Amino acid sequence: MPDLTLHAPISLDEASEILAHYQGEARAIAGGTALVLMLRQGLIRPPALVRLDRVRGLDTISIEDGTLRIGALATLRDVAASPLVAECIPVLAEACKLVANVRVRNAATVGGNLCEADYASDPPGVLVALDARVRARRGGQTREIAVADLITDFYETSLAPDELVSEVLVPIPPPDTRGVYLKFITRSAEDRPCVGATALVRLDGDRRIADARVAVGAVAGRPVRLPEVEATMRSDGSDSDDLFREIGRRYAEAVDPVGDVRGSAAYRKEMVEVFVRRALRAAANGEAGARKV
C-alpha cells in the first residue's frame, strides 16, 4: 500500500474542506471493506485518506415523521440487527443480513456501501425500490438525492468530489405492504448476487394490486426500476401469475446486463425475468423479508 496522508476530521464540514483541498484526488474512508482492497491491489493511489470514524452522530438509527433515518456510518450489521428496521421495513433488515459475511457486515457502513456504487451489492436495489434518499453535505450546504439518482453507473455516483453522505432516509411503507428481496447466487454462499430482485406489493381488500414497486440490482451499472411498468400493475390490478410473468419479461427486455464470473449477459436477462416474477408472487402471497436462492 502506498504512503498516504491520513486526516481524521471531527465534522462533515471539516472533512468536506479537506476533500476540496485535494481537488477530487483524496478519498473518504468509513468501514474500508472495499477501499482497503482497492488500495492493496493498486487499483487506486490517492494522496490522502479522510477518516470519518471520528465524526460523531452518524451511526444512529431512528424514526421521524414516517421516515426511517439511518446514519451513514451505521454498519450493515447495525441495520440487520435493528429492532426498528425489522419492525417497519423487514425487507431491508433481512437484505443487509445477506451481504457477504459477518466480518464484512460488522465493518461495512450503509453510506460507504452506497457511495462505492458497486453494481453487485444487495442494499442499493432494495433502497431504490423503497424510494430511499440520501442526505449529502458539501461546503456547509445540504441536499437530498434519491438513491436511484445517486448511483449513476459502475462505481460512479452523482456526488461532488468533496460531498459526503450523512444519512439515508427511507420512507416507511404502509403496514399492509409486503417487501421481498431475492438474492440469486451462482457460486459460494458468501458471494455477491448474480441478480437481486426486490418487489414491494400492497393489495386491497379484494386482493387487487393497490401499489407495486420493483427494482433489479446486480445486473447493470445501476439498479433498474421501471415506473411505467409499475404503473401497468396498478392499472391492471390483478393478482395473477400472468401479470407477474409479463412484468418480469418487460424488465428483462429493458435491462442491459453485464457479463461477469457470476453469469453472462444473456443468462442474466433470463434470470431477471424469472426472479422478478418470483419476487412479485412471494410479496403478493404475504411473504416479507429476504432470502438467497
Compact overview of the structure:
The chain is of the alpha+beta class and 293 residues long. It has helices at 12-21, 35-40, 76-81, 83-88, 90-97, 102-107, 110-116, 123-129, 147-150, 227-236, 241-254, 265-284, and strands at 5-7, 27-29, 48-51, 61-64, 67-71, 133-138, 141-146, 151-153, 156-157, 164-171, 177-184, 195-203, 209-217, 289-292. It folds into 3 domains: 5-51, Uridine Diphospho-n-acetylenolpyruvylglucosamine Reductase, domain 2; 61-171, Uridine Diphospho-n-acetylenolpyruvylglucosamine Reductase, domain 3; 177-292, 2-Layer Sandwich (Enolase-like, domain 1), CATH 3.30.390.50.
What do you see in this structure?
- This protein is α+β, with helices and mostly antiparallel strands and 293 residues long.
- The protein folds into 3 domains: 5-51, Uridine Diphospho-n-acetylenolpyruvylglucosamine Reductase, domain 2 (2-Layer Sandwich), CATH 3.30.43.10; 61-171, 2-Layer Sandwich (Uridine Diphospho-n-acetylenolpyruvylglucosamine Reductase, domain 3), CATH 3.30.465.10; 177-292, 2-Layer Sandwich (Enolase-like, domain 1).
- The protein has 12 helices and 14 strands.
- The strands form 4 sheets. Strands 4-5-10-6-7 form a 5-stranded antiparallel β-sheet. It has a 4-stranded mixed β-sheet with strand order 13-12-11-14, with helices on both faces. It has a 3-stranded parallel β-sheet with strand order 1-3-2, with helices on one face.
- Helix 10 packs antiparallel against helix 11 and helix 11 packs antiparallel against helix 12.
- The longest helix has 20 residues, at 265-284.
- It is globular, with a radius of gyration of 19 Å.
- The model has no long low-confidence stretch (mean pLDDT 96).
